[in-house]
Write a structure and sequence with these properties.
The chain is of the alpha/beta class. It contains 10 helices and 12 strands. The chain has 3 domains: 76 residues, Winged helix-like DNA-binding domain superfamily/Winged helix DNA-binding domain (Arc Repressor Mutant, subunit A), CATH 1.10.10; 95 residues, 3-Layer(aba) Sandwich (D-Maltodextrin-Binding Protein, domain 2), CATH 3.40.190; 105 residues, 3-Layer(aba) Sandwich (D-Maltodextrin-Binding Protein, domain 2), CATH 3.40.190.290.
Length: 295
């Protein structure tokens, strides 16, 4: 068992597809197939269930993947730590976030402070963030919903109210507040399952024993105000959107009568991970830019 075999296995396990893994690794498909067969033979147990040309990671493969990702992450940490010690270049910082809009100000300040550092961004739902952190693909995740675990460290940056955005002219547009139960028959514009807006919407409705009627869903949260303003439905938006769009935008804003109608923005990193000087600067700048000033 060598490092190359483990990296091949990780790619195949993520894609559950030999050809896609080979494309990611930039190697020939037969080489990947032979490596996986040799690894399974060496371990003495199948890691994938095979049905024709389709493969699926089985329970043994999933358990092996968790340990492989941890081992490869430690090796990558060691490589970066030695590179930092040797002063090998300005380094890089990688971040995963559900929405990249909030990172604009942080990145501008960071690049001004460290202009030579490479920055890599991943837009990802919370489940993918966990994988990116576990495999050391990213230094930090900027999460808008709970992302916790014994292997993770987190820092709450900001907690903000989430408002209901409605088209101007909608009966709710003249209201200051609305109860969740009153929204049972409304059409909603939201993000896909896995994103924080959808998770919050479903949680609020579940507390009332009802389900939201989502008529438009996607990955582009920034388009939500325009879609709501066009009359497709109503939707949940963070308070920062109101400040950005202003009171003359395409929607009116209504407060939701629910104690937990808020978004908590958290910076998360892997416990014990090597954070380069550049990564430590990024964390400090994110705290300075996103955490509210103490009164």
């Amino acid at each position: 068992m060598d490092l190359l075999s483990l990296r091949y296995f990780r790619a195949v396990a993520r894609h559950e597809h030999i050809s896609r893994a080979a494309e990611e690794l930039r190697v020939a498909q037969p080489s990947v197939s032979r490596t996986i067969i040799r690894l399974e033979s060496e371990l003495g147990i199948p890691l994938f269930d095979r049905q024709g040309r389709r493969i699926r990671l089985n329970e043994h493969g999933a358990a092996f993947l968790r340990r492989v990702e941890r081992a490869l992450a430690e090796l990558d940490d060691a490589r970066r730590e030695m590179a930092d010690a040797a002063g090998a270049g300005p380094g890089r910082v990688a971040v995963a976030a559900e929405t990249l809009l909030l990172l604009a100000g942080v990145l501008a300040a960071f690049r001004a402070h460290r202009p030579g550092v490479g920055v890599r961004l991943f837009q990802a739902p919370v489940d993918s963030m966990r994988r990116h952190l576990r495999s050391a693909e990213v230094d930090f995740a900027l999460a808008s919903q709970p992302l916790a675990g014994p292997e993770l460290c987190s820092l709450e940056l900001v907690r903000e109210e989430v408002l209901l955005a409605v088209p101007r002219g909608h009966p709710l547009a003249v209201r200051e507040r609305v109860a969740v139960a009153e929204l049972a028959d409304e059409d909603f514009v939201s993000t896909r399952t896995g994103h924080w807006q959808r998770a919050l919407l479903e949680r609020l409705f579940a507390q009332e024993g009802i389900s939201p009627r989502v008529v438009c869903e996607g990955d582009e949260a920034a388009a939500t105000p325009e879609l709501i303003g066009a009359g497709l439905g109503i939707g949940l938006m963070p308070a920062v959107a109101r400040r950005t769009i202003g009171e003359r935008g395409p929607v009116a804003w209504v407060r939701v009568d629910a104690a937990d109608c808020h978004r908590t923005l958290t910076l998360v990193w892997r416990q014990g991970a090597h954070l380069s000087p550049a990564a430590l600067d990024f964390r400090r700048i994110a705290m300075d830019r996103l955490m509210p000033a103490e009164s």
